[in-house]
């Protein structure tokens, strides 16, 4: 801890944040909130983000689960940032997870009491809405550069970092926070040994156009259904008027990925026909959701993750850039929010940069490893075949651990 008479190691320094996503914005808000008068000459912070300001809150068509269980901690962290109530106000219908049979009858519902001090235990929120609230609460002192991504970074002999920007310019900083996502270009340049790994499952996913009414049970819950034939379906509200759906299956090698908006009409027709075939074992609401698909949202996605790694020096990786996890973890947003807050906390309160980085990694790596490990178990169970119906108690206990249920809660489920 720095005494009042000591100069903080970040005093007068320049911090650049590569990426303007959830982890990056959480870091900037947390740093400002925790700063108080602990650094007499606070560092300047600049964000470089590849999106335009319009894209940042307009194009993202999927939703995220933010939870308040002891493991996830996203709700608690948003509360510490002073923006939880604002997030809840724009959250989606359906605030708890359900594991369904193939006919969408509930096998297990995870409706846990909220942690003391929280108004509710979890929420589902559109990523665009979550990011919009974060941007709205960005401190005025943070310089936000839209439409100009960090393309590469070079560590200099004096410990500073030189970055190359998409517009062809260069800049020097004292600390680089890398939050440019799972396909991080900076990680590929500086830490090429840490690569994304295909984890054996491919998904077809999309969202619907705006609906007159969300089909049951999405007005109350979201979750996944086990087909028993190797397919797993997921349904959730995408925002307050539309829904997202996916169907996934195990495979030895990844297929050609297709991002939303990159397929022609014939390709979209073929993928939707494949989705209908893969979901034929399931009952409603999956068929309605597929039929009401917004065609431009159709995506083919190969699930990948990365083994979390320790940081060193003046380049600090956070969020998916450090510990990418597949959607089956259901925890990427929670981890990113916690990363931003905990890194800011350590940078402000530690005695030096090396200590701050070590303490941050000590917090981030174990929880992200656990989330990734649980996602692998969830993939195996969700895509199981044959005797899967006799495994639901085991599923409840694994997912109960995942969602923070107590043993007593599990006994009541039994």
UniProtKB/TrEMBL annotation:
Domain FAD-binding, chain residue ranges per copy:
74-359
Give GO terms: molecular function aspect only. FAD binding; monooxygenase activity
Keywords per UniProt = FAD, Flavoprotein, Membrane, Monooxygenase, Oxidoreductase, Transmembrane, Transmembrane helix
Q: Which residues cross the membrane?
A: 15-35
Do the record's keywords include Transmembrane? yes
Ranges in a coiled coil:
none
Name the source's superkingdom: Eukaryota
Transmembrane helix: present as a keyword of the record?
yes
Descriptive protein name = FAD-binding domain-containing protein
